[in-house]
Amino acid sequence: MSDNQGSSTSILLAFAVGAIAGAAIALLYAPASGEETRRKLAQKARDSKDGLSAAVQKGREVYDQVRKEMA
Is the CB of residue 12 less than 8 Å from the CB of residue 55? Predict the structure, then answer.
């Protein structure tokens, strides 16, 4: 079970990193001023950090629950 959780975590992390990179590239190529682009990048970074923190917390809860059930 732990191998499966590790794989799921890796996939989730890879997806999050890809989404962040894709958003950053899209914003850099979008026709907007430098200041507006930096503001959008900063906001996306904050949103991504919040989303990733929530995903990590959920992962910890699932891990704790599975660990309790296995004991």
Answer: yes
